[in-house]
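Quick look at the format.
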Amino acid sequence: VQLQASGGGLVQPGGSLRLSCVASRSIFSTFAPKAMGWYRQAPGSQRELVASIHGRSTTNYTDAVKGRFTISRDNSRKTVYLQMNSLKPEDTAVYYCNSLSLEWGWGQGTQVTVSS
């Protein structure tokens, strides 16, 4: 597994979670310059890009998560983060990370369930 996502769980509406995505040693040397994204796939839906980070701080978000999610990265730790606040039931999905060029495997992702 080249990218390992973690940090998901069950949370009530309005709650928060912080997801992490750690690169394996096999891609350490190429991780830092890559534009990275967090993607999600809800049951019965296609996988979608929800947040991306270019360089150290240029970020983009899909409209559905703007103002609630924050993507960041720590290249020294080979990790990309997704801080998710004010979670809604429609955020329920399996979350994955990958480069924007989708050159690495998807891995298992991490399940986020927002429910009361």
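Next, a different chain entirely:
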Amino acid sequence: QVQLVESGGGLVQPGGSLRLSCAASGSAIGFAVMSWYRQAPGKQRDLVARITGGGLTTYADSVKGRFTISRENAKNTVDLQMNSLKPEDTAVYYCNLKYPGARSDYWGQGIQVTVSS
């Protein structure tokens, strides 16, 4: 049973930075596609960033140049460095793990990020 636990969220002023971390347990993430999604109140859950087992990255247009996703397979973690934060980045952020070819995926419980002055 894979478990994902997010950490690092909180309240930050516009222009500030936060680093989210997702720790996986129960299985190695080495070949998994790891992603961060976010969901603002009243909106759908959207992809923020994704990194493949080979290190290829994908970003939503709204975060390109500001957010960086990285993974450390030895520690079974994936991080999201968020810089130049904007109020519209306010959302609950979720970590996701999916193994290639698998029918199901795994989600963390989510962590709140609030960007406000």
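The mean pLDDT is 96.

See the schema section for token definitions.
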